[in-house]
Every structure is written in structure tokens, then in C-alpha cells.
Amino acid sequence: MPGRVSRRDLVVTGKVIKPHGVLGWVKVQVLSSNPKRFSEGSAFILEGRESGERLVVQRVKGAPGEVILVKFEGVEDRDQAEAIRGRRLFVTPEEVGEPPPGCYWEHQIVGLAVTTTEGVELGKVREVMETGANDVLVVRQGRRECLIPMIEEVVSEVDLERGVLVINPMPGLLEE
């Protein structure tokens, strides 16, 4: 049996929304930018079952997008589909692979310490929000929260080995 994997070490790639029909199909919200992530034979770690068997995709209906229909092996009826409703689907960082040059995966950014080019510590990245134009980092230190746009004009350095993200704040960005 595989060893228990910490949820902190996993990357969310989808979420089971609800059952679809009576034959074990489920609607899945796709949270991966990889259009082939949900293909026949793909395997996922189910939230709450981190040390158990993986869910393997048997069939997929719908074009890669925000919501697809998925039939997992071993999920044969509506009751079994209902049992996984609302659960997230994970893969390991190794399965995600390397991002394109100059880009970072969300799991690489969350948890980094954020400082300004002048050395002022702002806190840690707690979340990456996707917006229509660019991603926005939610940085918290205590009760203080900053929203930092993930754009070249602001983010001057990302050092994954040191666990630091350095920003050059635009005028007004950090004002309360």
C-alpha cells in the first residue's frame, strides 16, 4: 500500500461537483490548465483518500474546459458517485511537470515569503487568485492582507530555492 501523502504536497486539478445519471458518472470542475489531464487512464488522488487507491478515469465526455463528465473505474452507480461529491482531485507535483519558461505553478508560489526590493517583509503568499487580466497574489502577515498583481512591473524576482518572492511595489500598491 502506498504511504500517506500530505495534502500540502499535492496539486488540485479538479473537483467533483455532483453525480450525473445513475451509472456512476460525475460532473467535474476542471482546475488544471493541462487539456489532457482528464483523459482515459489518468489517475487522481481523491480528497480524504490520500493513502488509498487512486481514482482512474475510465471515460470522459465533453471538451476540455471548465466542466466535463467523467466515469471513474469502480464508481458504478449513483450512490458511489454521491459518495465522492464535493471532493477535490489531486496529483503530485511530479505529475504536473515543469511550467513553461518564466511561468510558475500555483503550488510553487503559495507559501513563499514576500519582501520588497527595499527589504520590507510583507508576509507569505496564501492564495493565488485568477483574474481576467493577470493572477493576483494574496499576501498575509498577521491581520494585514495585501493584493499583489503577478506582473513583470511588480514582481522582480521569484527564488523558489530560497522560498522568496521580491516585489517592486507600484505607487499606492501597499498604502492602507
Give structural notes.
The termini are far apart. Residues 1-7 have low confidence and may be disordered. 19% of the residues are buried. It is elongated and about 60 Å long. The chain folds into 2 domains: 7-96, RimM (Elongation Factor Tu (Ef-tu), domain 3), CATH 2.40.30.60; 106-167, Roll (SH3 type barrels). The strands form 2 sheets. The protein has a 6-stranded antiparallel barrel. A 6-stranded mixed sheet has the order 10-9-8-7-12-11, with no helix packed on it. The longest helix is centred in the middle third of the chain and has 6 residues, at 78-83. With 176 residues, the chain is mainly β. The protein contains 3 helices and 12 strands.
List the helices and strands and how they pair.
Blueprint (H helix, E strand, L loop, with lengths): L10 E10 L4 E6 L12 E4 L8 E7 L5 E6 L5 H6 L4 E4 L1 H4 L9 H4 L3 E4 L4 E10 L4 E7 L2 E6 L5 E5 L4 E4 L9
Parallel strand pairs: 7-12
Antiparallel strand pairs: 1-2, 1-6, 2-5, 3-4, 3-6, 4-5, 7-8, 8-9, 9-10, 11-12
